[in-house]
Amino acid sequence: MLCMVMVAAAQEVQPLPKPDKKAKMTLFQALDRRESVREYSDREIPERTLSNLLWAACGINRPGQGRITAPSAINAQDITVYVCRQDGAWKYDAAAHALTKVSDKDLRKQVAGFQNFAATAPVSLVLVSDISKVRNHSELGAMDAGYVSENICLACTALGLATVPRATMDKAELAKELKLSDSEVLMLNNPVGYKK
Question: Would you call 129 helix, strand, or coil by DSSP?
Answer without folding.
Answer: strand
